Amino acid sequence: MLDDMRVLRGAVREYRVAATAAGLDWPDAGESPAGPPPDRVRRIFDVDHVADQLAWLQSQRWPDARLLPNGGWRMPWPDGGDALDYLGLSIGTPFPWRQQLPLFHFDFLLYTFVLAGEHEGEIWRYPVGEDAWESVRAASSLAVLFDQWTRGIAAGVVRYDEANKWLLVEDVEGVPGLDPLAFPVTPVDETLLHARQRECGASPVADDEGFEHQERLLDAIDGAKATLGR
């Protein structure tokens, strides 16, 4: 889902205010207008347009720091086809694997922005590691994601960690109004995970099938990168 721009700007602003009130060092640099995405993005991810919502978020002048829950950071626009390597675990998605841009990195999880089709604007999450086949939607839109993180701070389950200088996510399961899958924590409750996969159209992959699926996906990634290299 693509957010109304006013809703998205408000959600990001409220998250920054809540994060700084919690202790995060994030000076207000003011809002920047959306700049055009690099031409290479459409070619890398095989899409004919890039949503204004994504272009606006990438244009904001954030400090070079871990500003997201659990020490996550916003990834820059990709420089080339190597960005496709991040998608090697996006198995069982209900949209073409290539039409998503790696956006947020949380050490053990990758969040992507879906660039096209009926799932455009959704945020999906993938564990970074072997033997993990847990493709699932983290949030229906960017504004929903930032709103969940703001609610987590207000509920006291996302708090400032003085030692690491970032926001630490504690146990969010069972907290009213919070969606555990919106938060960069792993593992997650399997019942919740599988229910969300059914809801968002993902195809769960059994452990004994995962490597076969990933092998095919990695071959497709290599093929796409070879095309980009011409």
Structural descriptors:
single chain; 230 residues; alpha+beta; SMI1/KNR4-like; five-stranded antiparallel beta sheet; two-stranded antiparallel ribbon; 6 helices; 7 strands; DUF402 domain-containing protein
Explain what this protein looks like in three dimensions.
The chain has 230 residues and is α+β, with helices and mostly antiparallel strands. It has one domain: SMI1/KNR4-like (3-Layer(aba) Sandwich), CATH 3.40.1580. Helix content is 34%, strand content 13%. It is built from 6 helices and 7 strands. Strands 1-2-3-4-5 form a 5-stranded antiparallel sheet. The protein has a two-stranded antiparallel ribbon with strand order 6-7. The protein is globular and about 45 Å long. This is DUF402 domain-containing protein.
Continuous helix count: 6
Give the tally of structural domains.
1
Strand order in the largest sheet:
1-2-3-4-5
In round numbers, the mean pLDDT is 93
Number of β-strand runs? 7
Strand content: 5-15%
Structural class: alpha+beta
Most strands sheet: 5 strands, antiparallel
Order of helices and strands: HHHEEEEEHEEHH
Shape call: globular
Protein name: DUF402 domain-containing protein
Organism: Micromonospora tulbaghiae
